Amino acid sequence: MKIVVASSEAIPFAKTGGLADVASALSKALAEAGHEVSLFLPYYPQSTAKRGFTSQDFEACPEKVTISVGSKDVEAGLLKAKFPDSKVTVYLVDQPRYFDRPELYHEQGRDYQDNCERYIFFSRAVLAFTEKLNLQPDVIHANDWQTGLIPALLKIEYQQRPGFEKTASVFTIHNMAFQGQYWHWDMLLTGIDWKYFNRHQMEFFGQLNLLKTGIVFSDMITTVSPTYAKEIRTEQFGYGLHGVLDSHSDHLVGILNGVDTSEWNPEIDPHLAANYNENSVLEGKPLCKAALQERMGLPQRPDVPLFGTISRMTDQKGFSLILDAAENLLASDVQMIFLGTGDPYHEASFTDLSKRFPDQVATYVGFDETLAHQIEAGLDLFMMPSQFEPCGLNQMYSLSYGTVPLVHEVGGLADSVVDASEKNLENGTANGLSFWHFDATVLYRQMRRAMEMYADKQIWNQLIQTGMTKDWSWTHSAQNYLSVYQRACILRNQNNESVSAS
Prior knowledge:
By secondary structure, the chain is α/β, with parallel strands linked by helices. It has 20 helices and 21 strands. α1 packs across α20. The radius of gyration is 23 Å and the shape is globular.
């Protein structure tokens, strides 16, 4: 198949969250399976520079297009790059006015005021360059609100154009909490007729909603775990769009993300003190634990349980629960390591915790890619008590690295972590600990339970082995996406007439 993937971020070029990991890893997995993949993202000069790229890493393409954004005509340039050891072609849409900024979406906690205009421009540029380069895709795969306009443009403007006669659209929701809602006059920026601004299509309580637009106009909708696909059809997790998703449920599929094993694999990870696999984990992991304790300034004690997490420090990620539970647990013989940034209150609270318990707690406010890998390998238990979690990747990194996850049983966490109940231990499916009631006392009890299990090396090693021996790579997930693409193409051909306004 010929596949175009559109994303507002992708590693190693730009990243704020899991979308960047997924866009890159899925593209590489699809290309490895023999498909022709083109990945489009904006060119953020300041972001790529921070990540060590120079102008020599990109090839300037001769093609340029002029994009109409409302009353403006804005020129878009194009840069070309490749992933190492992959046949994916990466196209970066170049327009400094929109994308040459210190951050991707916001600065100092405030969204850029022209975000709607920026990503309408990007969405139109993706389709214009797809046409200009004569890519003739079977599928265009858009991701999150930033590219939510693409399925609408494909149906309304491009459906009958040469090269798009059979092009289907797939739209992936990575997080329902971010919907791209803007005032109704921004509809003018889309260039789409006002008749589509109605409650069945692009309008949401008087505003333009780009996530809803992607949902309504795409041939198939996916989200990043089977459980999340069910959750977002409920009032609790649907953020007002649960009814829209329920009415499109026949076209909604949940596919659990995978792990990019070229980046996250303890057997070849260059960041670790020792490499290991499921057969050598009992020799290699203690060396990684000792190195992590040394780096973080904690006493090198091999037998003390080492808990921790890598995350945005927010209530959504369960940091209020962790703080309350940790205060009580630190009366026991345990160590903890925290890495992340986020809410200033949580940053200060966990920094203070490490000052009050210097031999037990280490906190690094910021982000360090090398340290993130070392934490995954060095911890005994990875805590991920997210209030909601569409998929989550760190719990799968942990399972791959022989670090037992402790999770709140939602979204992708519920789909990847099997609780160490007596029954699950007996039948060999248990690989971690999970709980349902989102409460600090419940989390504390689960942490105590983890300490008891850690003391029983037979049970703990069984959890490690069960987690490490499962294939968490993108291979299976990519096949599921291909099935969705094929279904989208069938639906596209069945409905081969122009969309009409409801």
